[in-house]
Design brief:
The protein is of the alpha/beta class and 723 residues long. The protein folds into three domains: 193 residues, Rossmann fold (3-Layer(aba) Sandwich); 232 residues, Endonuclease Chain A (Endonuclease, Chain A); 261 residues, Endonuclease, Chain A (2-Layer Sandwich). The chain has 22 helices and 25 strands. Helix 17 crosses helix 21. The longest helix has 20 residues. The radius of gyration is 27 Å and the shape is globular. The relative contact order is 0.11. This is Phosphatase domain-containing protein. Pfam families: APP1_cat (PF09949), PLDc_2 (PF13091).
Length: 723
């Protein structure tokens, strides 16, 4: 087919926030249906339209609806807001209640299509819709009555959750491609039309969200910055050593900003000290302006850490700094961002740290993974477990954006806490209820390296609204969805949870779309098998979903040290095709993607790594220096292997599989003889498949989703399974 001979007709009644009753019923069914077989969502439909435009439709995109013409203008605004490509709106209805709401409009839509075909007699059409309305009949009848005028029919399944289907159209009818989401529709559509992914000169916007895609015009944070330097600090000991040196260099006129989930003032940042409190109070006494935000946390009676955060806040306050205990969250939520920003009188010295490491007891481990020496005698298993974590040190213009991240929260006029059992204890301890004004932002630091960096965040929609994110912000989720839609060969993940089926659905769609894609995920080992706890049910759903989608291309693993003691994986890292990498505070669960405050740095290095394969994804992006170094450093640590067997994604996946099997077999045989190289073990065998019991479906599962992994999206986004 010639590239310029087809136009796209997309029936959009099924994607609107308020849909006809039949589609709305399908959404409610999908929302109530859980399990590894259910991949229904509106994920990727914008990508479908953009691919069709780039593949040959050009500007020939028509959005069909049974809504009346008087709603054309707001409908166009909705389509622009939801990032659909420009096109012509075809309004087929006369009234909302007389037709559209109850799913009528078949005849009027058919009349509109017939007129469109008459106006464009030389055009072949691609028809896109879903199975919840009358699209299957509408499209089939149109193709029958206009033979040769329909190239392919694409139907997103909303009601039917069975296996994907693709009919060849041998009887003269056009091929029909069906899948539960847009990402999985793409391969069949591209095959039918003879188009492939866009290749050519790499563009930053192929990997990063544009400002419009972030969908938060209220923030001061820029879409991305270029010219930044990035240094990886794997393990708490390396991060704490670098942080101590940099904070020690601050003095009068400098600014120390930080935000965290927890802060332990007595945590030593090196052997014999100094402690967190000593480092921060020392900066304040030297004249630096020290300002911090710590999550106030829930009540100590439930096992939380408000006492530790309060002690650190009081110590800094006594030295002339300020630390606010911030409870401006949704119910059951938390502030989970982990960031330190150091601004100097000389902007060349500005630096920031982002990642998964808080200033807490138990975090100062190293590559040997014997645990934090200070916490070795503690009775708290969480603080004395060996821990694997990572942070990035950033220099360059991005430091200004990270300054703005902290400043936006600091300047939020909403009360820090409103419940009496939060407010009264803070008043009794003399803690401030509002922070003093921050100085005007310093100039943007000069360029320091070759990395483009995008700051990604999660803020929920809440009341009162955050002034810097009045509808919330889900740029973290949107970024992962965009990037996984481009993944071709290898997604490497280290994560504390990997719990949620809603998040796993994004990975599953990528695995089904890209048949050569491997997923390697490193997560913590379960403490013990306590049966179907809420957390285990959530993780089983997620693991089963990605295994069903990718089969043996999926490896979920955990880590132990050389003494066979489990290592708690607290890192939050993702590397895609050795091009795009992210390090942050976010986990792969619904809570992190929608409900708690989170922060990550996505990194796209301009430096190429020319070692073969020089372009793993095959799209012209080329392997990038930072992303490849990050993945190789982590895999070398876990596998005790050299780069020769880790560079190629297929070789890396094979090496992981072989070394995991050897170590598992050694343990199963009684740990006799020399221990095989590597520290990775197969995670939770048997979780690859899960059959939910009645109790898990209606009691344990809802408890997990309500309390442990809550959803902070507006209801319309939940119903459509979008972010």
């Amino acid at each position: 087919m010639e590239r310029s001979t087809y136009a796209v007709v997309y029936d959009i009644d099924g994607i609107l926030r308020i849909a006809p009753l039949r589609q709305q019923w399908g959404r409610l069914r999908a929302l109530a249906t859980r399990g590894p077989h259910d991949r229904r969502s509106q994920l990727g439909m914008q990508r479908v339209l953009r691919t069709l435009v780039e593949g040959g439709a050009g500007g020939s995109v028509f959005f069909l609806t049974a809504l009346p013409i008087r709603l054309a203008r707001p409908l166009r605004r909705i389509l622009r807001h939801d990032q659909y490509p420009p096109g012509t709106v075809l309004m087929a209805g006369r009234g909302i209640f007389t037709g559209w709401l109850f799913g009528a409009g078949l005849e009027s839509k058919r009349a509109v299509l017939d007129r469109l075909a008459a106006r464009h007699p030389d055009t072949t059409f691609v028809l896109v819709g879903d199975d919840a309305g009358h699209d299957p009949q509408l499209f089939a009848d149109f193709a029958r009555d206009h033979p040769g005028r329909v190239a392919v029919i694409a139907l997103r399944r909303l009601l039917d959750v069975g296996d994907d289907r693709e009919s060849a159209g041998d009887d003269g009818s056009p091929p029909v491609v069906e899948a539960p989401n847009g990402e999985e529709l793409l391969p069949g559509l591209c095959d039918a039309l003879g188009i492939g992914p866009r290749r050519g000169a790499p563009r930053i916007e192929d990997w990063f969200l544009t400002r419009a895609e972030r969908d938060n015009p209220a923030t001061r944070v820029r879409a991305w910055t270029e010219g930044n330097a990035v240094h990886l600090r794997v393990h708490g000991s390396a991060y704490y050593r670098a942080l101590t040196e940099r904070v020690a260099a601050t003095g009068a006129g400098d600014l120390v900003l930080f935000a965290g989930w927890r802060g332990d003032g007595d945590q030593q940042l090196g052997d014999g000290g100094p402690t967190v409190a000593e480092v921060l109070t020392g900066a304040a006494r030297r004249g630096a302006l020290v300002r911090g935000l710590l999550w106030r946390s829930h009540l100590e009676a439930f096992g939380y850490h408000v006492a530790q955060n309060r002690r650190l806040a009081r110590a800094v306050l006594a030295a002339g700094g300020e630390v606010l205990l911030d409870q401006r969250i949704r119910p059951l939520g938390s502030h989970h961002q982990k960031i330190v920003v150091l601004r100097h009188r000389d902007a060349d010295d500005d630096v920031a740290y982002v990642g998964g490491i808080d200033l807490v007891l138990g975090a100062r481990d190293d590559i040997v993974h014997r645990g934090d020496p200070q916490s070795a005698a503690s009775g708290d298993e969480y603080t004395r477990s060996p821990r694997h974590d990572a942070q990035v040190e950033l220099r360059g213009p991005v430091v200004r954006d990270l300054h703005d991240v902290v400043a936006e929260r600091w300047d939020d006029p909403a009360p820090l806490a409103r419940l009496p059992w939060h407010v009264v204890p803070d008043l009794l301890h003399g803690l401030p209820r509002r922070g003093s004004s921050l100085p005007d932002p310093a100039p943007t630091p000069p360029q320091a390296g070759g990395c483009a960096i995008q700051i990604l965040r999660t803020y929920p929609q809440r009341r009162p609204a955050h002034p810097f994110a009045p509808r919330g912000e889900r740029s973290l989720a949107r970024a992962f969805i965009k990037v996984l839609g481009r993944a071709r060969r290898l997604v490497y993940v280290e994560d504390q949870y990997l719990w949620s089926a809603d998040v796993a659905r994004v990975f599953a769609a990528a695995l089904r779309r890209a048949p050569e894609l491997h997923l390697i995920a490193v997560v913590p080992r379960p403490d013990r098998d306590d049966g179907p706890t809420p957390a285990s049910v959530g993780q089983r759903e997620a693991i089963a979903m990605v295994h069903e989608a990718g089969g043996n291309r999926v490896q979920i693993l955990d880590v132990e040290n050389d003494e066979a003691r489990p290592v708690y994986v607290h890192a939050k890292i993702c590397v895609v095709d050795d091009v795009w990498a992210t390090v942050g505070s976010n986990n792969f669960n619904t809570r992190s993607w929608t409900h708690d405050s989170e922060l990550a740095a996505a990194i796209l290095d301009s430096e190429r790594d020319g070692r073969a394969p020089a372009d793993p994804g095959g799209l012209g992006d080329g392997a990038r220096g930072f992303a490849r170094r990050l993945r190789l450093e982590l895999m070398r640590e876990h596998l005790e292997a050299d780069d020769a067997v880790l560079l190629d994604p297929d070789d890396a996946a094979r090496t992981v599989r072989d070394r995991v099997a050897a170590l598992d077999a050694w343990h199963a045989g009684g740990a006799l003889g020399a221990r095989p190289p590597g520290r990775l073990r197969r995670h939770a065998p048997g979780h690859e498949q899960v059959d939910q019991t009645w109790r898990q479906r209606w009691i344990t599962g809802p408890a997990y989703r309500r309390v442990l992994d809550p959803d902070g999206r507006p209801l319309a986004a939940r119903l459509r399974r979008i972010y």
